[in-house]
């Protein structure tokens, strides 16, 4: 996707990002409420996510994050991908702080009264 976008001078939007940890067809607990997992999830999912965005900032122009307790929703209870995922940032003090530190960097546009007056580069 990134190679295609670069080749055709197209922007990339990463939609519906959420921390799912997997190796092959095995899915691992990604519940941010669990203190014993929050640092592991940050290291294994969030750091590579932001590294990918930073490394490919020439084409990745936006992303959306799904801040949801997937495991509490009936449609995902039997789904092996999402039945162990609670991606709500606010349930983990550690991940919340790390997220805030990252998102407050000047490269990200955040909601504000002045947002539309800033103008967009590129």
Question: How would you briefly describe this protein structure?
Answer:
This is GH26 domain-containing protein. The protein has helices at residues 2-7, 35-55, 93-103, 115-118, and strands at residues 12-17, 21-23, 26-28, 30-31, 60-65, 85-86. It is α/β, with parallel strands linked by helices and 122 residues long.
The tally of strands reads: 6
Number of domains: 1
Rg, nearest Å: 16 Å
Mean pLDDT: 92
Strand order of the largest sheet: 1-5
Beta-strand content: 15-25%
What is the number of helical segments per DSSP (H or I, 4+ residues)? 4
Biggest beta sheet summary: 2 strands, parallel
- Order of H and E elements: HEEEEHEEHH
Terminus-to-terminus distance = 20 Å
Helix content: 25-40%
Shape assignment: globular
Low-confidence stretches: none
Structural class: alpha/beta
Protein name: GH26 domain-containing protein
Organism: Jejuia spongiicola
InterPro entries: GH (IPR017853)
Structure description:
The longest helix has 21 residues. Helices cover 34% and strands 18% of the residues. The model has no long low-confidence stretch (mean pLDDT 92). The protein is globular, with a radius of gyration of 16 Å. The relative contact order is 0.18. It is of the alpha/beta class. InterPro entries: GH.
List the helices and strands and how they pair.
Layout: H1 2-7, E1 12-17, E2 21-23, E3 26-28, E4 30-31, H2 35-55, E5 60-65, E6 85-86, H3 93-103, H4 115-118
Parallel strand pairs: 1-5, 4-6
Antiparallel strand pairs: 2-3
Helix pairs in contact: 2-3
Could you list some keywords that capture this structure?
34% helix; 122 residues; two-stranded parallel ribbon; GH; 4 helices; globular; GH26 domain-containing protein; alpha/beta; 6 strands
């Amino acid at each position: 996707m990134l190679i295609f976008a670069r080749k055709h001078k197209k922007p990339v939007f990463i939609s519906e990002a959420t921390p799912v940890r997997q190796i092959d067809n095995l899915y691992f607990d990604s519940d941010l409420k669990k203190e014993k997992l929050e640092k592991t999830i940050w290291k294994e999912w969030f750091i590579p996510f932001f590294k990918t965005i930073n490394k490919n900032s020439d084409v990745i122009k936006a992303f959306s994050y799904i801040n949801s307790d997937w495991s509490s929703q009936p449609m995902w209870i039997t789904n092996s991908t999402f039945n162990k995922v609670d991606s709500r940032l606010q349930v983990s003090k550690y991940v919340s702080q790390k997220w805030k530190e990252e998102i407050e960097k000047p490269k990200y546009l955040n909601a504000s009264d002045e947002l539309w007056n800033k103008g967009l580069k590129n």
